[in-house]
Amino acid sequence: MKTKTNQAENKVAPPQISVVIPLYNEEESLPELLAWIDRVMQANGFTYEVVMIDDGSSDNSWQVVQQQKEKFPGIIGIRFLRNYGKSAALHVGFKHTKGEVVITMDADLQDSPDEIPGLYKMITEEGYDLVSGWKKKRYDPISKTIPSKLFNKVTQWSSGIKLHDFNCGLKAYKSKVVKTIEVYGEMHRYIPVIAKWNGFYKIGEKVVQHRARKYGITKFGLERFVFGFLDLLSISFVSRFKKRPMHFFGTLGSLSFLLGFIFAAKILLEKLYVANILNEVPRREVVAQPLFFLSLVMLIIGVQLFLAGFISEMVSLNSPNRNDYHISEKV
Question: Checking CA distances to 163, which of 16, 195, 284, 298 falls within 20 to 30 Å?
Answer without folding.
Answer: 16
